[in-house]
Each structure stands twice: as structure tokens, then as C-alpha cells.
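User: ok so my PI wants both of these folded by tonight, can you help

Assistant: No problem, let's get them done. Here's the first:
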Amino acid sequence: MSKEKILIVDDEDSIRNQLRWGLADEYEVVTAGSADEARRMLREEKPAVVTLDVTLGPAGGRPEGLELLEEIVERHPLTKVIMVTGNDSRENALAAIRRGAVDWYAKPIQLEELRVILRRAMHIRHIEQAQSADAPAGRKRYHRLVGESAVMQKVFSLIQRVAPTDATVLIMGENGTGKELVAHAIHQAGGRREEPFVPINCGAIPGPLLESELFGHERGAFTDAHRTREGRFELADKGTLFLDEIGELPTQLQVKLLRFLQEHTVERVGGRDTIKVDARVVAATNQDLKAMRADGRFREDLFYRLSVVTITVPPLRERGDDLRLLAEYFLEFYGRHHKRRIKGFTQAGLRALMAHPWPGNVRELENRVQRAVILAQDAYLRPEDLELEGEGDPGEPLPTMQSARDEAERRLLTEALLRNAGNITRAAKDVDVSRPTLHDLMRKHGLEAAKFRRPDLPEEDPEEVGEGES
């Protein structure tokens, strides 16, 4: 049985050598002395667990350990990270746990203690690998996506189910909803997670250049083609190609894309050879591809090839309390990133956030919160910090509970008297009270039955009036 692989990242030779020797009987140990070397080892060796020194980096420089931790959590979510700190660095250790490390231990290293921590990290990894296909209900974060609303839980579940397959996926949604994050989550949750994720925006590159970007070109294929160049399809071999704004793809390139989806081969511009490429395709658009099919701007056969599975990302206005969750997430993230001690939002700031329609969706929210974090003069963000002055103002004061009840009671009595043309007996039955009680309520609200009577109807039916009632 092969040993699990661990990566030791530390800039001290003695520690790397000690751990390589001390753990070799239980694990396959690889080491790195710098952040760049660690990134290369993560790509090439694909370790199950990493031990990472918080103070990694040149003496006197900015520690690189926490930055590398964030990269690992984002790009290699199944790889578990154990942070290594000095005895005086408990604050750094707690910060690392908040950022996604599974555990930490302090120097000087006690080998048996480290063995226990490593086994626990391996156990966590094995549990995650064996998770069921459905995303757990109520999950607040899924890869880089944040949300706990029912509509986002549905998105998480679809991602989890489609990720292990090689099916093409079409992601639909308005601008700013996070379609690329969904594509990235599909890549990270599937079997290609350790291979390249290659994005390209089909609407940002002119048609003639887009063909070369996607399919590559041979030397001399056109002016300035001084060397052979691989296209994005080849760069995504064994990984995932994300085609953003697929609705902007020119018709002639739609034909070439369809051919790739059918045969998994490409031809470079100016070339004659076909090149076999194993890349999964995930596409996204904010356009109505069905309408584009109807008027001939998008090929019907390509649409069906791309939309084997369709995931619709909801706009922010349909995500309920996810708005507040996202706002707090961005505040914490950018507060840490820009080294600003922002504690939260004022009540007016929260009201402004909830009242704004968010036409730019999550991207607009992120930009507003980041700008507010940078420019805020206080510890709490106000509407003016978010550039949302006037939104969510409370306006007139709310009525008291008693006045609201009285108003509802008066409206109900008025409706009952109108329906029954001032007939006290029938009105009392409609609102389920006795005649005396109805009289009391009418006096309380200054209502007179005579004002509701109609000349074409008889007045109160004497038989309906009980003895002793007035």
C-alpha cells in the first residue's frame, strides 16, 4: 500500500531534514524551502497534507506563510494545511485557523505531537473525499462561493453532482452574479482539480484574434506570427476551459467549437495537423441563447452540446439574507487585506444595503464594501461610506402596536358594515362578535350604522335582535 504524501514548507534546512527523516516511516515526505518552490511542489506532487511555516520568507520581509495558506485553500481545497508557529505567535495561529488551516503547532517541534496532528488532518481529508454527492444543507461557503439561501444551496448541490463528470455545463445568470466562481467550483470539486483552469472572455477579444487565442497558431500563419503558439484549448489539456460570454462567440468559431466538443481535437490557425486535447468545457452567458437560436445568431446544435447541464445563478435581489452574509464576508476580507480595523455596519448602513436594488449584483456589493473599507473614517460603515445615502431611510416613525391594532380594527368594522348595509346583526356575525360588543366597538371608533344603510334595503330585522339587546 502506497504511503500518503505530505509537503513540508519551511525555510530552515534543519527542520526540513528533521521532518523528512522523522516521518519517512509513515509518509512519503517532500519538502520546499520557499513559497515559489512550494507552489511548484503542490502542482507536481499533489500532497494530501502541507505543514507550512507562518514566518516563511526572507528575514525582515513580509511573512509569506499566510498568503500561501490562502492560495492553497483556494486552489487546492482538499489539501489540508497545518501551520507551524513560534511560541510567541499564537495570534498568527488563530488567524491561520480562521483562513482555512485545519490545525497548528509550535516550534520547537515535538515529533510525536506532530504525528497525532498529521493523522487528524489525514482523517479530515479522507472524510471530505468520501462525502456524498449532495452538498450539505445550510452550507454557508462552497469553495469560493458564499450563501445559505435555498436558491444558492440548489446551485451548490448541482455543482457537487456535475463536478465528478466530464459533462459540459452552461452557466446562466446576470452580470456580476459570480458565474466564473461557479465554473471554478465545478473544476475544484471534480477530478481535474489539480490540472489547469483556463478562463477566456469571448466578448473581450476581437473575432480574428479570438480564433488564435482559442486554437493557437503556427509560425507565419499571419503577420506578427513570429512563433508557434498554443491556444487556450491546448493550455487546458487535462483541465477545464471556461468560455465566458459564450453568446459573443462569432458564428465561424461556433463551428470550430462544435467540432471540438464532438471530436476533442483542434487545428491551429495556419496548421494542418489535428491535435488531440482532453479538456472539459464550461461556458457562461448573461444572454438569452434560446432567443439567439431563434434568430440565427447562435447554432442550435452547439447550444445542445454546451447545455448538457445548465446551472442558473440567481441575482442578488433573489438571495434573501445572503446579502447581509456576503456584505459581512467582504468587510472581513477587505478589512484584513487593507489592514483596516472595521468592526461592522451601522444600523443605517444595513438598512441602506437591504434597500438598494443591486443591479450589479455581487460584484457591485463587493466593490462598494471594498471602497467603503478603504475610505471609512470610523469603525462602522455608514450609508455615506457605501455611497448609498438616502437609501433605507426610516422616513416616518413606525406606529405603535396599539395604534396599528386600532387601525386594523376600524378597517374591519367599516368593511363589515359596508357589506351588510349597516345591518348590525349580520355585521356582528361576519366579524364573529355579539351585537353588544359590536355596538361598543362602533362607539369606540365613532362609527354609526345609519351612515352605512341604503334606502333600498330594510333596516334591522327585529327577529334577529335578541331579547335585551339594543
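One down. Here's the second:
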Amino acid sequence: MFKLWATIVKDFRVLVRDGIGLALMFVMPIVLVFVVTDIQNSTFKLINKNKLAILICNRDTGESSAQLIKTINKIGMFKVSQLPKNQSKETIADSMKQRDALLSVVIPANFTVKVRAKSKSVAGKALTSFGLQADSAQKNVGEVDPLTLYYNPVLQESMRISVQGGLRSALQLVESRETLRSLYFSINEKQLPPKLEDEMLNNKASINEIPVSKNGTLSAPNAAQHNVPAWTIFAMFFVIMSLGGSVVREKVNGSFIRLKTLPTNYLVGLLSKQLTYVAVTVIQAAVIFSLGIWVFPLINLPALNLPSDIFGLFVVTLVCGWCAVSYAICVGVFAETHQQSNGFGAISIVILAAIGGLMVPTFTMDTSLKTFANFSPMHWCLQAYYGLFLEGGRLRDVLGNLIPIIIITFVFQFITFLGLKRKNLI
């Protein structure tokens, strides 16, 4: 026990002297957490709260185009501004740049005429199917001229699809209103009362949104719930920059040879490194989680809400940290120089993070990449954290994610042992 404690003290002193390694393990992940959370929070606000600026060039003077603009305003996702009707494509593009608008819509000059003609045609066909007499002159009319949507190329395809869906809903509502008016007038020979019109058009079923959780009491997750656990895992695995270099340094300067002359085993040294750096990963998690809880609200970022099972959170952190430390030691044993350890370590961590879902959610990947994600320890670490933070689960609910992490850890440990045996270091 004394040998183990003495080795732990030695590894701690080596760690404290490694200023660059400490910066990579603490400062860099903290900066990443702040930057990425702020960016994603801005994206959440754009999608959920902020409105997209949209310019409307209305070349029509009828009621239907005015109703369309009013309906687009009511959708809730657009901040509408109108342009003069004589705008050309070039002037519309200039206006978008000047007003910092991502979208612009041009309503054609004959919009109201075409909408009413089509509505009367549809109403006439409906009356004919009811066995009633309809105006035959209105049975064959052309389609309504399409709206023209200009967009800034920076707008992602998913957002453009949402915009098109909103505009189609507005168009459908305007056309349905005109069709309903035509039908009512043809049957009753008087105008449709506004109150009845609103009741018939706005009688829609509501939608309740409930995030899926283990206990059924979870509030809607925010950007902090997504990013803080993810970049905490990234920080844990970046101990490879310090720990891998420490293992290489002991091989290069002959410490391994000297240790073999002492009445101890190098496996004690490996155990010491694991205990020391697992403690470092737990401290990393504590620091980053604390920043999410207390500092994020001070800079207008959503606060991190810890899961109800704190013990489960500690166990998950411990297992993830052990896996990260095991990987770092494994790389350090096989690397011959600091450059090999740091270069391979940094690149491999970024790759594992990418395919593991830390940078891009796994549900957006194709089937082949999803298969590779199962071999990334970061994927299972992230799923375990998400099970606690996003789904409100407890330790028993994330055991299915912890088991693959433990298996991968033992694989790293076994490969490390084989490497030490092959190099005659133990």
C-alpha cells in the first residue's frame, strides 16, 4: 500500500508540473463548452423563439394577397417587412442584404384573380358532385401562379423546408377561405358570416409536446443539457495529452528500466496512474458541471440542470473517466515518441468524438457511420450521460450503456498488458 501511495504522489507531482497538459485538460474543454453551448443556444432561439426576417414584395392589389400576408404574420416564425411592388430581382437581393433578411417572397400580380377563379372552380365541382347546378364557365381554370421565394444560401436545407411548409400552410388557408366563401355564396346566395368563417377555418386539433423521459417529470432539455455532458467527455479523453506523454517519457528516459531493479512491479505504477488520472477526470466533470450550473446563467446561457440521481451521475463519470485513462495509457505504451503520442492521441480523440455523436448527432448519420459509432467509447459515454440528463433516468436505466464502456475499457487494459509484455517492460 505504501508503494502505491508513493507512486500516486509521484504521478501527482509530475501532473502538476505539466502546465500545458493541465491547460489542455481544463482550459480548452471549458472554452469549448462555453462557445459551443452559446452557438447551439442561439440556434435553438432562432428555431424556437426568434423570428426569421422575411421581405414580401406584393405585386397584387387584391384581398387574397393581403390575407396571405396577414396569415404569414400569424404563423409565428417570420418577422414580416414589405417592399414596394415594383422591385426587381436585383433590388430584392440588395434589400435582403441591407435589412439582414434571409428570405424574400414575391406575390404575383394576378394572385387574387387566380385564387378566386380556382376557388370558384373547386366549389363548382363540389356542387356538381352534390347534384347541384354549377357555373360551367368556372370548371376549367389554370393553377395559381406560384410564389417566388428568394433565400440566402447560408440558410440550411432543413430550415428552408420548414419555411416552405409554413408558406404552403398560409397559401392553403387563403385558398380554403376563398373556396369556403364560394360554396356558401353558391348555396345561400349571401356572404359567409365572418364569425362562422373563423369557426370553420380555425377549428383545429391542438398538439401537446412532451419530452420522453424515464419518470415522466422531465422538463424540456436546453442547450446546456446537450453540450455540457458531451464536452465533459471530450475533456476526459483529452487527458491523453498529459498521461500518454507521461508514459512515453518514462520509457524514453529509462524510468521503466530503473523500476525493474526495484522490489516492486510496474503494474503498481500503472494502477497509480489510473487512480490519479481518474481523479483528474472526476475533477474535470465537477468543474465543467459547476460552470454550467452557476456561471451559464450569469452570461445569459441556460443553466445546467443536474439529474435527480447524483450517485448515478458519479458512477457514470467514474466509468467514463476510467475508460478515457485506459485509452491514454494504451496509446502511451505503444507510442515511441511524444510526437507520436500527442499526434495520434489528438487525432484519434477528434475522430472518436465525431463518430461517437459529440459533434454531430448519431441520428443524422447514415447506416454505416451509425455502425462505427458503436465502436466509439465516447458514443456509449454520451448515451449514458444523456440517459441521466435528457431522459431523467437513474443508474439502473443506463446500465445498458455502462456495460459496453466497461468492456471497451477491459479491451484497452488487455492490449496495454500485451504491449508491456512484448516490450519486456513487465
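The longest helix spans residues 157-188. The mean pLDDT is 81. Good luck tonight!
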